[in-house]
Amino acid sequence: MNDLKSKIEAAADAVRSICDRTPRVAVVTGTGLGGLAEAVNAEAVIPYAEIPHFPPPTAPSHRGRLLLGELNGASVAVLDGRFHSYEGYTLAECTFPIRVVRALGAETLVLTNAAGGLNPSFELADTMLIEDHIDFLSGNPLTGPNDDSLGPRFPDMYEPYDRGLMAIAREEASAGGMTLRDGVFVAVPGPNLETRAEYRMLRGFGADVVGMSTVPECIVAKHCGMKTLAFSVVTDLCDPERLEPVDIAKIIATAERGGAALSKLLQRVIPRL
Ligand code: HPA
Question: Does the keyword Transferase apply (predicted)?
Answer without folding.
Answer: yes
